[in-house]
Design a protein that fits this description.
The protein contains 9 helices and no strands. The protein is mainly alpha-helical and 195 residues long.
């Protein structure tokens, strides 16, 4: 359920307030772009999809009933746009997910800044590992990759992911388990071939 501040903000969006729309972009633009990029691995495509998401929000805000948080509804639109884009093309599945999943269930935020702190040789090794992880993620089914991105990068709970993806929390748990198993197997196969 939405709170009064959010309710007021949504009402301003429904009234077509340019200020409210700018605030919406400021608040959610980076998150939506990040999700779109993780699903496409293309900055240009992510920018196009991000614009499509905000156009959809403007066009459909009048239908928003407040049965979920605004952020959940917005992320649901982003997921739909990404999946529609992928279905409309027979392009190879890609992902720019640049965070290792092998550090337990907690995302290692410091990994995002690793290139700034290590030597050139370590940085090259890191980039090679990330390329391998990216290639493994390319092979995951869309629903597994989306659940993994929402959980590990956006830090959504199972329930929030379930709401965004229109599935049960147990289905989210299953998707995350399978995605991790698949990634581990794909990486193991890669390293055995490239010893």
């Amino acid at each position: 359920m939405i709170d009064q501040t959010e309710e007021f903000f949504i009402e301003k969006l429904k009234q077509g307030s340019e200020l409210a729309f700018r605030q919406l972009i400021s608040q959610y633009g980076n998150q939506i772009h990040r999700i779109c990029f993780q699903m496409t691995s293309s900055t240009h495509e992510a920018e196009d999809l991000t614009q499509d998401v905000f156009i959809s929000i403007v066009e459909s805000i009048g239908q928003f009933k407040g049965q979920s948080k605004l952020s959940t509804w917005i992320h649901k639109i982003a997921v739909s746009k990404c999946l529609e884009s992928k279905r409309s093309k027979s392009a190879k599945k890609r992902s720019g997910f640049l965070v290792s999943i092998f550090g337990g269930d907690e995302i290692q935020k410091s990994a995002l800044n690793i290139a700034d702190t290590y030597s050139t040789s370590t940085q090259i090794e890191y980039e090679q590992v990330q390329t391998v992880i990216k290639a493994a993620l390319d092979q995951l089914p869309d629903n597994q990759r989306m659940a993994l991105v929402l959980n590990k990068m956006e830090e959504y709970s199972y329930k929030e992911i379930a709401d965004i993806m229109n599935i049960s929390a147990s289905a989210v748990e299953s998707l995350l388990f399978r995605s991790k198993q698949n990634i581990k197997k794909l990486l193991k196969d890669y390293y055995e071939k490239n010893k």
